[in-house]
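Database export, one record per block. Field names are fixed; values are copied verbatim from the stored entry.
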Amino acid sequence: MPAQLKRVVLLCTALNAIGGTSRHMAQIYRGLDKGKFRPFIVFSSLQEASLRDFFIKEGCAPEDIRAIPHVTRCLCGAFKGLRRAWHELKPDIVHSFFLHSDILSRATTFFMPSIVRVSSVEGKFIWDRDNGVGAFKNACYRLLNTRVRKSFARTITVSSELKDEVVAMGGNKERITIVPVGVPVVEVGLLKPWPPQADIVAGTLSRFSQDKGVDLLLQAAVACRQELARVSFILGGAGDEEARLKAMARDLGIVEMVVFPGWVEDVTGFLNGIDIYVMPSRREGCPLGLMEAMMHAKACVVFDVPGVRAIARHEQNALVIPAFDTAAFGKAICRLALDRQLRAALGARARSDAVARHSLAREMKELEAVYVQAGKA
């Protein structure tokens, strides 16, 4: 008689934009061994219809997706929606993403001892004034985390830096496992430059938010123009900062160098159409875009910031620039633009590292082991 499938719910209750977390949830849904696990997606969002469509386009079956009321609209409705989902889906494991979801996961499954709680931390965990959170709220978050974390069989972080943050906020390091995010192994396609007037195309895929540092990239583009390198920039993405960034490009006089194609659904097509991948983030949790670019054998230029430095190694698989030095960032892009052999060498090593260390198959194997261990805890 075949073993019963473990029912796993992937939960995020603050999924207000398509980004790394939503893409990662979809990857886990697709990547889990369907002979052992039965995955579902449960989410709440202020952009519910867009997120539902996104998950369906990413290969999630409509019948496996549940949207619940957003907590800011109706706290009671969010609780009722989750309780209804647990009774309907009967999960063995609830895998929540970020502290907001962890709190709701614990609160709504507290009297359901058969459910194993697992948590993922993929972004900044310690709130501070840079994130608009003062000392009092920081203390509250710390207290909440200390209490909530005890009820989770396992907490997963994507890097050692994030593990240290969770421990600093009261997490038990013995219950924390590092599982770096993986990406599918893909065939490398042929280059097809986007703007025909440019010799070299540098591109990025990103939410347009302050932490992604696209404003820093625009400043670096000015440095490229000063270096007289023929480089065009394709900035794929969308977000609250889009209007400001377009205005900034106009103010800097680089409109002719920059293309904003909007949100990009065909990631492989986008990456096959650029020569250099740039990630100007001020901070990353799991830099999915960087790993995908490396898998596509792209020479990459990045800032030396948390989340990125665990993956990129200067002059080995990328050019790693001191944090927020936009002039040096621009010069690094120009260096790659003018040195085809260096682009090819860095790209080849990047792909080799991505296949060996950042494949989706490797992540799924490690994640499935966490699920099994958590169920025995």
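Remark 1: Residues 202 and 276 are 5 Å apart (CA to CA).
Remark 2: The chain has a mean pLDDT of 89.
End of record.
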